[in-house]
Amino acid sequence: MVEAAGLALRVIHAPGHRPGCVMFALDYPGHPEIESVVFSGDVLFAGSIGRTDLPGGDHHVMLDTLRGPVLGLSDATAVLPGHGPQSVMARERATNPYLQPDYLRTR
Q1: pTM above the 0.85 mark?
Q2: What letter would DSSP give residue 84?
């Protein structure tokens, strides 16, 4: 847990793009459709994931991160990536090619 500006952020270890990558999650009570927000940095983007071909990146570790912490996020989680538009996990789970079972199983 990290506190910043009066907010308690959960730290989620999410390596793969880089060894020390993390995501920060924040509960978002009172919203009718969003229960939490995750700042995904360069781990998860709308329709994509962070690169693993740069120094320090590891594709197999990224797959473990996608299968675990990323897919462990609820569908009602807003995703705020380090680049590009925001999304929600329900959309990413349904449309992001890198989160599909065939991709995660065969690599």
Answers
A1: yes
A2: S
| Strand, helix or coil for residue 5 | coil
pLDDT, position 107: 62
The tens digit of pLDDT for each residue in 14-43 reads 999 999 999 999 999 999 999 999 999 999
| pLDDT tens digits for range 49-77 | 999 999 999 999 999 999 999 999 999 99
Cα distance between residue 40 and residue 30, in whole Å: 22
Q: What is the DSSP string of 29-81?
A: TT-SS-SEEEEEETTEETTEE---SSTT--HHHHHHHIIIIITTS-TTEEEEE
Burial tier of 94 (Cβ tally within 10 Å: 0-12, 13-18, 19+): exposed
Whether the CB-CB separation of 45 and 81 falls below 8 Å is answered with: yes
Which domains are present in the chain? 2-106 (3.60.15.10)
d(CA 49, CA 68): 14
